Amino acid sequence: MFIAPSILAADFARLGDEIRAVPSADWIHVDIMDGHFVPNLSFGPSITADVHKVTDKPLDVHLMIENPQLWVDEYIKAGAAGITFHVEAVDDHVALAKYLREQGVRAGFSLRPGTAIEPYLKDLEHFDIVLVMSVEPGFGGQSFMPDQLEKVRTLRKEIDDRGLHTLIEIDGGISAATIGQAAAAGCDAYVAGSAVFGADDPDAAVRELAEIAAG
Ligand code: DX5
Ligand code: ZN
C-alpha cells in the first residue's frame, strides 16, 4: 500500500521543507497542469527536477496536460519514477505506455470522472498504474466522488481475475473520512493533498491515512 502526498497542496515557497515534513510518505505525487487540459496551471519539469533533488522518494508524476507524449522525456530527465497521463489527451495510450516502460519508468493512465473504464480494461497489461480520479482534475481541495469507486471495483476484479500486477491509485478528496471506502473498493495507492499538507502535522496525517487504509 502506498500513500502519495500531493505537493499541489504544499507551500511552493517552502517546497523542500514541506517534502521533508512527510518522511512516512511512500511516493511524492507531482501534479502537472498546463492550463489547457485542465483550467489550472501548476509547475513544470524544472521544479519537478528540483523536487527530485531534495527527496529519495519515488516521484509519481501526474500529467494533466495536452499532448503528454511531447513532454514525457522532460519528466523522465527530471527524475520521475512513474508517469501517469490522461487517456483523454492521447491518441495511442498503449504506444505511450510502451515507450515509458522502455525508458525504465512506471507507466500509468488516468481517466476523468466522466470517462468509462471498460474500453481500457483490455490494455491493462501495458500499465503499472491506473489512476482513478475521484474529483474533476484541476484543483486540490474538492469533495470525494464516491460513485468513482465503481471503477475501482471493476478494475480490482479484472486485475485479480487476470493475475495482473497493475496498481490501482485514487486521487481527489482522499482524507481520513474517505480513504476507508477507497481501500474497501480495492485501491493500492492513495493520493492526498489537502488532507496532508493542510494538517498541523503532515506526517501524522500520512500515518493516519496508512493505518485506516490498512484496515
Ligand atoms: C487534482 C490533482 C490531485 C490533487 C488532490 O487535479 O490531481 O492530485 O492535488 O488534492 P486533494 O487531496 O486536496 O483533493
Ligand atoms: Zn494528481
From TrEMBL:
Active site: 31, 171
GO cellular component annotations of the record: cytoplasm
Catalysed reaction equations from the record: D-ribulose 5-phosphate = D-xylulose 5-phosphate
SUPFAM superfamilies (alphabetical): Ribulose-phoshate binding barrel
PROSITE patterns for this protein: RIBUL_P_3_EPIMER_1, RIBUL_P_3_EPIMER_2
Keywords (A to Z) from UniProt: Carbohydrate metabolism, Cobalt, Isomerase, Manganese, Metal-binding, Zinc
Binding site for a divalent metal cation: 29, 31, 62, 171
Cofactor note: Binds 1 divalent metal cation per subunit.
Pathway terms, separated by semicolons: Carbohydrate degradation
UniProt KW Nuclease keyword: no
One of the GO biological process terms: pentose-phosphate shunt
EC primary class: isomerase
InterPro entries: Aldolase_TIM (IPR013785), Ribul_P_3_epim (IPR026019), Ribul_P_3_epim-like (IPR000056), RibuloseP-bd_barrel (IPR011060)
Keyword Isomerase tagged: yes
EC number: 5.1.3.1
UniProt: substrate binding residues: 6, 62, 138-141, 171-173, 193-194
Cofactor: Mn(2+); Fe(2+); a divalent metal cation; Zn(2+)
One term of GO molecular function: D-ribulose-phosphate 3-epimerase activity
Family: Belongs to the ribulose-phosphate 3-epimerase family.
Function comment: Catalyzes the reversible epimerization of D-ribulose 5-phosphate to D-xylulose 5-phosphate.
Protein's name according to its UniProt entry: Ribulose-phosphate 3-epimerase
